[in-house]
Amino acid sequence: MTDDVRNIRTALDAVAHHWQPHRLTSVNDYDVKVAKLHGEFVWHSHPDTDELFLVVEGTLTIQLRDRDVVLGPSDVFVVPRGVEHCPRADDEVSIVLVEPRGTVNTGDAGGDRTEPLRELP
Amino acid sequence: MTDDVRNIRTALDAVAHHWQPHRLTSVNDYDVKVAKLHGEFVWHSHPDTDELFLVVEGTLTIQLRDRDVVLGPSDVFVVPRGVEHCPRADDEVSIVLVEPRGTVNTGDAGGDRTEPLRELP
């Protein structure tokens, strides 16, 4: 939990690098994160948890093995636990994520795209 | 979980009455809800859970016993578990809530402002 008001857009303005999730706040043992994405991520899944994506600005394509899910501003999509996905942003996109504390961005894939959860400045 | 895309603004357009939370989607055993508020709610707390408020449109005042927290668009505030609060919207406000499944809107207060969680049409 963060004991004061956080603004999603102001928080995103403070995020300098793509693919680095920052903690906006927490609800019990769930973290609410902001991130900016540009380019393609890696295919991965989270075997133990669903993952919520909310687009703030831009367009995000969540590639699934059988279809692409395209999200615009204010769109929300939940990738079910265990489902392989690969986010792709042809132009920069700003998002909010909701998932349990400790959820790693690369899930079961690991590798050099793995990033720690950062605190906002 | 809801297995397709949900748009927060479209969902709010479908909510006809104030103080009636509707389920937008779910992440594991947490529900993400939308609601429209106008007027003053009741003082209550949730002894077992934090409660996240995100304002989409309008201005929401979350009255705490020792201060008022005023939220505008894109502002997020988490009321910690056990903390008494009373939301007030002098004009209509549209919000998103995140909390564990089964969290009741009136918390420990109960009474005639208690509403079931509704599904969107």
TrEMBL record, chains A, B:
Comp. bias (Basic and acidic residues): 110-121
All copies of domain Cupin type-2, residue ranges: 39-94
Region (Disordered): 101-121
CDD domains xrefs: cupin_YdbB-like
Pfam families according to UniProt: Cupin_2
InterPro entries membership: Cupin_2 (IPR013096), PKS_Associated_Protein (IPR052044), RmlC-like_jellyroll (IPR014710), RmlC_Cupin_sf (IPR011051)
Origin: domain of life: Bacteria
Protein name: Cupin domain-containing protein
Organism, as annotated: Cellulomonas alba
